[in-house]
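Sequence in, structure out.
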Amino acid sequence: MIKHIVFWRLRDGLNGLSREQIAREMQAKFEAMVGVVPGLHHLEFGIDFNASDDAAHCALYTEFDSREALDAYQASPEHMAVVPFIRSARTERRVVDYEVP
């Protein structure tokens, strides 16, 4: 099993949207992929309530069958449709991919 975790810090005021609204829109877009993207077994999207200077604003946690399934997700039309919005909304991105036997 492959775990793919992403943390983002977001702009405030993108196209008149607050960080909270941006995060909620991201959440809806990612959650729409569940049951659609092959090999994606689990997805959680969390929005931070801590609000400290060290915190990310939101996080994505996903589980995939294999590295190939993760690669297919990255290139999928569903994921590619979300990428431009996220790139315009983020100020920082951190990611970790790891395998669990």
